[in-house]
């Protein structure tokens, strides 16, 4: 009925209501008739609104107002009728919009009030809709201009909001609505602040800070003394004797009081930049002239002897208490001064003018740095300080100075961004007047830490350097337009930081902080589009670092130089590009000489290792974060390839470990470079290198030479990083060469990366019969590429064209077979990830090796299987390797160790592969003898270890028998302990699942028996813990099935309660408690 047009009687009632010429009784009758129809669900409110469209949007204000009033009164009539949340939301938005129409205000108020009056059990508007109604009311309703009835509606409207929607309207906004409340609210809040309840204190501080900022500076001035005295009670421990002696500070209340103080200071300072305003600023006067500042100076002068010796601190118990109180006073005062200094320029001037002259009068005798004739200097910077050795008092004072400087720096940033709001910058004058003392204080503390670092506790030294470098960073990173340092002081600061960077890398903590401080100081200019001293210094330091690398300086290791370069070049694409080009040239020069050098004393051998490592670990990751020109990356990859291509055939290195390490670093560099190249660059690279690679590796067999190792490694790295759209010329030859290189008997690192390249190659191979990889004019499909791998012709190449492994020594034959299996695992992984059915061929071949029977393979696989077939001594090793390869195929990409590569990934590939393997496993298990099944269950454990739990639970009926038998089979040897843990985790997931628990309850006897034996498993603590966990979970199964095992389980837990490992004993106790609760 709701979907039908309104009847003529409805039109009569509707017209009667909106017609103001009719008597009010007729209008009420029309409204009640409509309400009755809605109450009987014969008509919905949305339907009614749709039919009233012309009335609600009419240009006739009276008719429009009557229509909205009808809706408002209907909602008031149905305040207890349940409605859907969507309807409530739409009508809340409708009435919020109608509050803007003063003609319709009466009806909109009634409708809004009706919505807010609703109770939860019939549906209410949410907080967002309530906020929208409130916002519209505040912006559009002038309460004082309304008639009395509407004013009453407004009062009730706000009452409903406060009671029903406390998040929509907060009480502190109400309290701060007008300064007329100040006379009553400020004394009330200050009185509440004296409460012993923490929440009361926090509320009063939050309200006080907010309300005072709304009342204005005049009201604050009238109550400044009372506010400051109340805040002092919360800011200083000395006012709270019981806290000072026995309790820690309430940090939350303390910081809330600081925020309140800052809000008050901001308000009184306003936007004035006239420093004389301090005389009229009562609260700021109270703060800077308060006796607590004198206490601050007394604490410092009382503990520092003005000599170049040490800090004198009493060692008695009373002295320790005095020192603790002094430190507390200094810290609290420092935080208060910091908050005051960054509140406004006026307060900054007042605080720094009051504090710094007196403070540096105390510190100045100890911040003089002196050099001596026998001490080495670097660019005029001495390495000795006459500063008394830092202790807690001195470090705390310098931390206070640093905090104040950082606060003023933040204020300076804000001031500069206002662009001219403050025309006078004399507020920063006290800092500029004391800049020499500031700079030398932090340099002195840093140098003092350097000269005493071998004799004093490392934690204290680290704190010393943190204070010193952080202070230098704060002093030097002001916006250039508001800098507190002169040009000469900047030069001195930069010279000191450069001295630390270039000559003190052995002090790792100091060096790292210094490099980062240089970056912050130099980039401070860039935030304000100003290129000045910082940029010049950074360019100079980068040039010095590159020179250090070029000259191979003993004072600064190459890795440190490259790490510093990566930090300093962050965010600067141009300077990073230039640095990368220079380092690339150095690497290429070293690599040319690398294989020709017979003596390890040459600097090239020493430099190429850290140079390649630094490029890989620091420079290239930094390049990825900026808009680096791909030509630089492509050029690096191509140049390295050409160098390797021209390696001498007989090139050797005295220490082969250096060769392998440099090789691995270079492979990583090439892979990252190619990975981040765009498609045209990668296409050019393939055209450039495929031909030379195929020709140069045509002789690959058996054991590879040095050049062959590098060629295969480089080419494999490039193949791994290619995009799927890149065409690879002569793909069949490439695949053949990579397979042969993957199983060569020369270099394990190259074997691994070549196997990975084969997996990536088949993964990105064109997948359908129309789009095929073209090799020498012959179309090669993915199926044909897979046949090339499975037929195993590349194995005969690796065996010097022999027909079997009999020509090899037994150890080498086993290594060859293991390499082949690993290659098959990577190839299967590539196929599985792309969701290709060909993975089943490789999986069946591997499963045949696990089973050591040839029943699962067809004719095309038997050739490779014949090569890989183990003799009696190799059987366990080959079967285990094949089981590991199956597990590798099933792993997710994150845990499989697969490198950066643009893989073709099909969703749910793990699940599909796992499910496809269950049927073959069932078949081979049925046909296996008992002693042969252990390795098959090991393969199952590898398969299931990485599969998502929801997939396992979906297949729980098929998986559960495997799980039970695996628990028995794998407990026989220590080598299977990890796999056993994986199976137990699967069992625990099954036990907590509803369907899985039902399945376990039908085999409870077998489950309990296996878990009882595993709680004494001697090879793994994890297995014992997980077994006890599963055993405790069993009590949640149906009582009638579990209770008969109660006595048996409790008896078996006796040994577990005496387990040597505490974690096992605790789990045994929990398990025993769970089973003891089972009673008749």
TrEMBL record:
Biological processes, Gene Ontology terms:
DNA repair; iron-sulfur cluster assembly; protein maturation
Q: What is its main location?
A: nucleus
List GO terms (cellular component aspect).
cytosolic [4Fe-4S] assembly targeting complex; nucleus
Q: What keywords does the record list, in alphabetical order?
A: DNA damage, DNA repair, Nucleus, Repeat
- Occurrences of domain MMS19 N-terminal (ranges): 49-171, 173-236
Q: Which domain of life is it from?
A: Eukaryota
Q: Which Gene3D superfamilies match?
A: Leucine-rich Repeat Variant
Q: Which compartment or compartments is the protein found in?
A: Nucleus
The record's section on InterPro entries has:
ARM-like (IPR011989), ARM-type_fold (IPR016024), MMS19 (IPR039920), MMS19_C (IPR024687), MMS19_N (IPR029240)
Q: Which Pfam families does the annotation name?
A: MMS19_C, MMS19_N
Per the database record, which ranges form the MMS19 C-terminal domain? 656-1034
Function according to Swiss-Prot or TrEMBL: Key component of the cytosolic iron-sulfur protein assembly (CIA) complex, a multiprotein complex that mediates the incorporation of iron-sulfur cluster into apoproteins specifically involved in DNA metabolism and genomic integrity. In the CIA complex, MMS19 acts as an adapter between early-acting CIA components and a subset of cellular target iron-sulfur proteins.
Q: Which family does it belong to?
A: Belongs to the MET18/MMS19 family.
Q: What is this protein called?
A: MMS19 nucleotide excision repair protein
């Amino acid at each position: 009925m709701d979907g039908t047009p309104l009847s003529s009687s409805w039109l009569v009632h509707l017209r009667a209501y909106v017609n103001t010429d009719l008597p009010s009784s007729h209008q009420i009758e029309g409204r009640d008739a409509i309400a009755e129809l809605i109450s009987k669900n014969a008509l919905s409110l949305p339907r009614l609104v749709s039919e009233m469209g012309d009335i609600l949007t009419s240009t006739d204000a009276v008719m429009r107002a009557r229509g909205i009033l009808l809706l408002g009164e209907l909602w008031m009539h149905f305040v207890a009728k349940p409605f859907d949340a969507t309807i409530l939301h739409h009508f809340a938005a409708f009435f919020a919009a109608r509050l803007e129409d003063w003609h319709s205000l009466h009806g909109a108020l009634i409708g809004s009030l009706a919505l807010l009056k609703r109770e939860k059990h019939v549906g209410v508007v949410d907080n967002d809709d309530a906020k929208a109604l409130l916002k519209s009311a505040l912006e559009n309703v002038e309460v004082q201009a309304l008639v009395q009835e509407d004013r009453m509606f407004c009062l009730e409207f706000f009452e409903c909001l406060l009671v029903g929607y406390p998040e929509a309207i907060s009480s502190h906004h109400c309290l701060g609505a007008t300064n007329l409340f100040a006379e009553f609210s400020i004394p009330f809040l200050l009185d509440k602040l004296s409460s012993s309840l923490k929440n009361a204190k926090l509320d009063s501080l939050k309200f006080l800070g907010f309300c005072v900022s709304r009342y204005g500076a005049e009201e604050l001035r009238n109550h400044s003394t009372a506010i400051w005295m109340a805040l002092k009670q919360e800011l200083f421990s000395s006012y709270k004797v019981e806290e000072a002696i026995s309790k820690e500070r309430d940090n939350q209340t303390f910081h809330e009081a600081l925020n309140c103080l800052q809000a008050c200071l901001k308000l009184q300072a306003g936007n004035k930049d006239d420093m004389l305003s301090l005389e009229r600023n009562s609260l700021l006067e109270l703060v800077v002239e308060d006796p607590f500042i004198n206490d601050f100076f007394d604490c410092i002068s009382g503990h520092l002897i003005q000599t170049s010796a040490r800090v004198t601190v009493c060692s008695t118990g009373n002295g320790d208490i005095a020192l603790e109180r002094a430190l507390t006073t200094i810290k609290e005062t420092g935080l208060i001064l910091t908050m005051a200094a960054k509140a406004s320029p006026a307060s900054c001037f007042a605080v720094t003018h009051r504090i710094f002259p007196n403070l540096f009068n105390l510190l100045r005798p100890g911040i003089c740095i002196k050099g001596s004739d026998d001490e080495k200097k670097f660019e005029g910077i001495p390495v000795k300080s006459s500063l008394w050795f830092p202790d807690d008092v001195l470090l705390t004072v310098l931390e206070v100075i640093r905090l104040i400087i950082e606060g003023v720096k933040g204020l300076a940033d804000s001031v500069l961004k206002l662009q001219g709001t403050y025309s006078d910058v004399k507020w920063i004058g006290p800092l500029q007047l004391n800049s020499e003392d500031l700079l030398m204080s932090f340099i002195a503390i840093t140098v003092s830490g350097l000269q005493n670092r071998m004799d004093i506790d490392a934690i204290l030294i680290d704190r010393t350097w943190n204070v010193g470098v952080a202070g230098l960073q704060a002093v030097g990173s002001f916006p250039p337009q508001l800098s507190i340092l002169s040009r000469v002081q900047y030069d001195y600061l930069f010279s000191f930081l450069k001295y630390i960077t270039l000559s003190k890398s052995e002090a790792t903590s100091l060096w790292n902080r210094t490099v980062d401080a240089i970056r912050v100081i130099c980039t401070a200019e860039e935030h304000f589009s100003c290129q000045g001293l910082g940029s010049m210094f950074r360019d100079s330091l980068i040039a010095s670092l590159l020179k250090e690398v070029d000259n191979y300086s003993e004072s600064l290791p190459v890795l440190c130089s490259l790490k510093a370069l990566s930090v300093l070049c962050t965010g600067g694409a141009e300077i990073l590009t230039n640095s990368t080009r220079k380092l690339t040239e150095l690497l290429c020069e070293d690599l040319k000489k690398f294989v020709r050098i017979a003596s390890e004393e040459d600097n090239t051998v020493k430099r190429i290792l850290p140079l390649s490592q630094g490029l890989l670990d620091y420079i290239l990751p930094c390049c990825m974060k900026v808009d680096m020109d791909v030509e630089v990356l492509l050029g690096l990859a191509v140049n390295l390839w050409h160098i390797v291509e021209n390696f001498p055939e007989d090139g050797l290195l005295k220490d082969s470990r250096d060769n392998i390490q440099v090789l691995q670093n270079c492979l990583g560099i090439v892979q990252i470079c190619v990975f981040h190249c765009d498609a045209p660059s990668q296409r050019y690279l393939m055209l450039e290198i495929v031909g030379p690679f195929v020709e140069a590796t045509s002789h690959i067999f058996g054991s590879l030479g040095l050049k062959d190792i590098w060629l295969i490694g480089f080419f494999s790295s490039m193949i791994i990083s290619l995009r799927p759209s890149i065409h690879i010329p002569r793909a069949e030859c490439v695949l053949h060469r990579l397979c042969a290189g993957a199983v060569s008997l020369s270099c394990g690192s190259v074997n691994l990366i070549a196997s990975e390249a084969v997996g990536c190659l088949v993964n990105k191979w064109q997948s359908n019969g129309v789009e095929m990889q073209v090799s020498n004019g012959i179309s090669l499909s993915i199926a044909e590429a897979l046949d090339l791998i499975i037929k195993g012709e590349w194995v005969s190449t690796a065996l010097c064209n022999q027909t079997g492994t009999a020509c090899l020594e037994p150890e080498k034959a086993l290594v060859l077979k293991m390499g082949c299996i690993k290659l098959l695992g990577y190839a299967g992984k590539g196929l599985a990830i792309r969701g290709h059915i060909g993975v089943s061929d490789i999986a069946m071949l591997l499963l045949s090796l696990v089973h050591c029977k040839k029943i699962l393979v067809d004719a095309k696989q038997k050739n490779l299987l014949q090569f890989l077939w183990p003799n009696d001594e190799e059987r366990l090793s080959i079967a285990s390797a094949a089981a590991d390869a199956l597990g590798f195929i099933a792993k997710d990409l994150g845990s499989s160790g697969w490198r950066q590569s643009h893989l073709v990934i099909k969703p749910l590939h793990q699940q599909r592969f796992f499910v496809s393997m269950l049927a073959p496993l069932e078949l081979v298990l049925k046909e296996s003898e008992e002693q042969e099944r252990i390795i098959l269950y090991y393969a199952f454990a590898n398969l299931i270890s990485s599969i998502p739990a929801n997939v396992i639970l979906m297949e729980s009926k098929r998986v559960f028998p495997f799980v039970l038998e695996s628990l028995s089979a794998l407990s026989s040897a220590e080598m299977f302990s990890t796999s056993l843990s994986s199976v137990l985790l699967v069992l625990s997931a099954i036990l907590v699942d509803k369907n899985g628990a039902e399945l376990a309850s039908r085999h409870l006897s077998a489950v309990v028996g296996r878990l009882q034996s595993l709680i004494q498993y001697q090879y793994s603590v994890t297995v014992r813990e997980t077994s006890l966990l599963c055993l405790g979970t069993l009590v949640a199964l149906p009582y009638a099935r579990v209770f008969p095992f109660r006595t048996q389980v409790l008896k078996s837990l006796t040994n577990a309660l005496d387990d040597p490992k505490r974690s096992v004993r605790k789990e045994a106790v929990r398990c025993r408690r769970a089973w003891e609760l089972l009673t008749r």
